[in-house]
Design brief:
With 242 residues, the protein is mostly helical. The protein contains 8 helices and no strands. It has one domain.
Length: 242
Amino acid sequence: MQSPSLLRGAGYLFTGLKLLTVPGLRRFVLIPLVLSTLLFAAGTWVAGHYLLMLSGWINSYLPSWLQWMEWIVLPLLFFSASTLLFSTLGSIANLVGAPFNALLAQQVERHLTGTDQNSPPQSLMATLFPTIRSEIQKIFYYLIRAIPLLLLFVVPVINVAAPFVWMIFSSWMSAFQYADFPMSNHDLYDKEILAHLREKRLLSLGFGGATLLMTLIPILNFLAMPAAVAGATALWVAEWKR
């Protein structure tokens, strides 16, 4: 009996973490790991710095008899701001590291399927332009939807639900972001990738949600990008590849 789709999707991220330790894959993990570490270390510092500022702003804004709401409002605002920050950093990391992530996805797939183990990986130049083009398209996809969603935070009453809507959207974007690497290696791009993700929506959200959560955990988030690339590749091989 299979576990529920959300949990099964999240499990692929842990599969990705295990794959990072496979000896033949380690050299393909190195550059994505360094990029992820640098960007998420900076992001963790920025998030901590602005948390203090946000806490001070809420304290000054709320009247004394509503100070108890700080414990509700602050975590929701911080979570929403953190997901925005780390989603942005993830997009930058994926844009810069796209060719290396494509190579990592290719080698993980070869390891999982046991095919073409001895053939050389694609050259960086062969993956450079298609992967960067794909990353830029994903950034536009993200912005077109993120900007209207962010406006929900300033609409009275609706803004109570805004953090939860944002969390679901960010989870979806994480799944889209990383599923792109193994699928684009098979010449599948935006529309085809999204069609696959919608076909198993809860599975995709489970994987994306676990990835999003990992990016919010200091130290562990350094591994987020390579683990998500490897996990998305395992997801592709197990769930969609024919």
